[in-house]
From TrEMBL:
The keyword Transferase does not apply. Keywords: Cell membrane, Glycoprotein, Leucine-rich repeat, Membrane, Receptor, Repeat, Signal, Transmembrane, Transmembrane helix. It comes from the Eukaryota. The lineage of its organism: Eukaryota, Viridiplantae, Streptophyta, Embryophyta, Tracheophyta. This is RNI-like superfamily protein. It comes from Abeliophyllum distichum.
Length: 760
């Protein structure tokens, strides 16, 4: 009751009046173009505590966080910081001003004045353009615990003044130009727990002993530099708690000395050394055996011994193992024959051994690794059937066994998996798909390209309600395209090319949504967050006291693990690999190189978000639908090698995104459109159509060229009535049969029937 009284008396409608006025004044003084649309000069029920980027204390109602990250359009004028604008917020803890084109500050209004905000703990200035004077200004903010200066200045010859920042726990200096001198300038930051120096100009031999004063380090990121090795002249204590060793580059020339030098950091859990100049390979896993508590081993693109996996079982606490592109050879170890084998590590959550030279079969003991979320073994020489024991991996989210030599059929138990992404493409798998995926409701990606599957596409495929990407190209499927494919409303990428499919193109394909989904590129699970991601969301989840180091461990920086899904799709005459946000937005339909016949459904013109459409190398007839002018996002349209007739619709010139267009080898007539991008397509786009003219073909449209008409001799005319009668009877029966296949819309069928009656 007391709090309610105070709240009602001292701050109105959810925030203090003086802070609401201060926020509006702050918005006024941010150069034009800011995106703070919710900051309005009238009182609302929610109050300013619910404005964009504003967070208030649950107990006092005061503003404690201002997230102004990227609130300005970058093309606008420079912004000069004015500290006085922020002083009214006396309880402010977190302030983010990143990516706002800040270049300096008004005279006597520098960051040093923020020292009056005694509660300020986190400051994000990343992505701005300050000069070197900012260092002395920041050094007076003694209350700071988190400081993000990623990518803001060139300090190739300067050290970092840290005398007043002794409470710092997280410091991000990544993406700048610091050199080796930076280490000596950080020695006073004895409370530091996370130090990020990736993407600087640190070269050659690093005097790691200059950081020994940082005993509390939990995370050290030196990636993206030009480090060759670590040097130290001091004796070091034994370190037992190193939990993550990440090397996405080639291993240091003196690995033993390097590892010993790291023992000075008794709490270190995350170490990032990827993309440096470290050269000599590790001989065996036993060079890491003293790191018995290792939970994450990330060594992508390293140089490892060919039999590295044979003894990795000594690391029984491993959760994350990524060894992609490490040159590992030999067979996958089996628990039954090698006691220290890979399959004896029951704690594994992520296993990525793709892009190596592994051979042999996947041992059945893989079924014992029931905690696995990610299994990636692509691009090796693995063979034999896919073991049914994989079906025991109840937590599996991503399965990638592509580009191997697996053979045999896919076990029916696969339909019980909960995986979101199954990539089995480029193998020698065979048989029918009758039972393998019929109840796989969580599946987002199904990639079975370039195998030897036979039979028809099962009607049960309609049960895959979450599917966005279905890639079945280059197999031996036959039969018609099932209408059940259209039941998967979330589809956005369909590849059925290079099969033996026949029949009409289902008009119901126009009902798919081409939905943009993040789940297409990322598995639907989260193992951790990152200090390289949103700074404020990161610090909100990190406890600062030593007792909370478990929280940091749980957030184990998996930022450099590439969880993104890759999907291949042929468009613009080339095979492209899509990933990340590009994959999220990609949409395409490829039905090329089949035996499809009939007309192209005009309703496909409803797919306005479609980026690629390939119907080439079929037996399609009729005209190019004029409705295709509605495909405003289309970048590639391939209708070549069919029996299409009529003119090229002039409305296609409105497709401003169209980069590749080909209608070669059809029976088209008329003048080639010349407007806009149609003036850029070469003659290969139109060749094989003897009755079209205009550039880029060397055919003059002023010279008339008769379009051939079917010729009938006397005998054919005499028998013409009987031929027509037979034709109409046959055609009526054909329409009746095709009605079940949805070959034509009811309107289309009706018009055809009327035409037949009048002609008869």
């Amino acid at each position: 009751m007391v709090l309610s009284f105070l709240n009602g008396k001292w701050y109105c409608l959810g925030c203090f009046e003086e802070e609401r006025i201060a926020l509006l004044y702050l918005k006024e003084n941010i150069p034009i173009g800011n995106l703070l649309h919710s900051w309005v000069d009238y009182k609302t029920k929610a109050g300013c505590c619910h404005w964009q980027g504003v967070q208030c204390s649950n107990t006092t109602g005061r503003v404690i966080q201002l997230d102004l990250y990227n609130t300005r359009f970058m093309v606008l004028e420079d912004w000069y910081f004015n500290a006085s604008l922020f002083l009214p917020f006396q309880e402010l803890r977190n302030l983010s001003l990143g990516l706002n084109h800040l270049v300096g500050w008004i005279e006597n209004e520098g960051f040093d004045k923020l020292s009056k905000l005694k509660n300020l703990e986190a400051l994000d200035l990343s992505g701005n353009s300050f000069d070197r004077n900012i260092l002395s200004s920041l050094s007076q903010l003694s209350s700071l615990k988190h400081l993000n200066l990623h990518g803001i200045f060139d300090f190739s010859s300067r050290v970092f003044e840290t005398s007043g920042l002794r409470n710092l726990k997280i410091l991000n200096l990544g993406g700048n130009y610091f050199n080796n001198n930076i280490f000596s300038s950080l020695q006073e930051l004895s409370s530091l727990e996370s130090l990020v120096l990736f993407g600087n100009e640190i070269k050659g031999s690093v005097q790691i002993n200059e950081l020994y004063a940082l005993n509390d380090l939990v995370e050290l990121d030196l990636s993206g530099n030009e480090i060759e090795n670590f040097n130290t002249s001091k004796d070091i204590k034994t370190m037992h708690s190193l939990q993550v060793l990440y090397k996405d580059g080639i291993i240091v020339s003196n690995i033993s000395n390097m590892l010993q030098s790291l023992r000075a950091f008794p709490y270190l859990k995350n170490l990032y050394l990827q993309y440096n100049n470290m050269k000599r390979p590790i001989a065996t896993i036993y060079e890491l055996r003293h790191l018995s508590q290792l939970e994450g081993l990330f060594m992508d693109n390293s140089s490892l011994d060919a039999n590295f996996l044979q003894s990795i079982g000594v690391m029984t606490s491993l959760k994350f193992l990524t060894l992609s592109s490490c040159g590992i050879g030999g067979t996958l170890p089996n628990q039954g024959t090698i006691s220290n084998s890979l399959s004896s590590i029951f704690t594994l959550v992520v296993l990525d051994i793709s892009n190596n030279r592994l051979s042999g079969k996947i041992p059945p003991s893989v079924g014992n690794m029931t905690r696995l979320y990610v299994v990636a073994m692509s691009n090796n020489h693995l063979e034999g059937p896919i073991p049914v024991e994989i079906c025991k991996l109840d937590s599996l989210v991503r399965l990638d066994l592509s580009k191997n030599n697996f053979s045999g059929s896919v076990a029916s138990c696969f339909n019980k998996l909960k995986s979101s992404h199954a990539c089995l493409n480029n193998n020698r798998l065979e048989g029918q798909l009758t039972h393998a995926f019929y109840n796989y409701s969580s599946l987002v990606t199904l990639d079975l390209r370039e195998n030897q599957f036979i039979g028809s596409i099962p009607q049960s495929i309609g049960n895959l309600s979450s599917l966005s990407i279905i890639l079945l190209g280059v197999n031996h499927f036959k039969g018609t395209i099932p209408d059940q494919l259209c039941q998967m409303k979330r589809l956005s990428m369909i590849d059925l090319s290079y099969n033996g499919l026949y029949g009409h193109i289902p008009y119901c394909l126009s009902n798919i949504t081409l939905e943009v989904r993040e789940e297409k590129s990322m598995p639907d699970f989260e193992l951790g967050t990152s200090s390289k991601l949103n700074f404020l969301s990161y610090i909100d989840n990190v406890k600062l006291e030593r007792a909370s180091r478990v929280s940091l461990q749980e957030m184990s920086s998996l930022r450099s693990i590439d969880f993104e899904i890759t999907a291949a799709f042929t468009t613009k005459r080339n095979l492209y690999y899509y990933k990340g946000s590009i994959l999220d937005h990609m949409s395409g339909i490829d039905l090329s190189s089949n035996k499809l016949y009939g007309e192209i459904p005009s309703c496909l013109g409803k797919l306005s978000e479609l980026h690629a459409l390939n119907l080439s190398h079929n037996n399609l007839i009729g005209t190019i639908p004029a409705t295709f002018s509605n495909l405003s996002q289309l970048e590639s349209l391939d209708l070549s090698y069919n029996n299409l007739s009529g003119k090229i619709p002039t409305g296609l010139v409105e497709l401003k995104s169209l980069a590749v267009f080909t209608v070669a080898h059809n029976n088209l007539t008329g003048i080639i459109p010349q407007k806009d991008q149609f003036g850029t397509f070469d003659k290969d786009s139109y060749e094989g159509n003897p009755y079209i003219c205009g550039r880029p073909l060397p055919v003059d449209c002023t010279v008339s060229k008769p379009v051939p008409q079917p010729a009938f001799d006397d005998e054919s005319e005499e028998s013409g009535f009987m031929d027509k009668e037979f034709f109409y009877i046959s055609f009526t029966y054909f329409l009746f049969i095709c009605s079940d296949l949805h070959c034509y819309s009811p309107v289309h069928k009706s018009s055809l029937e009327k035409s037949m009656v009048s002609s008869h």
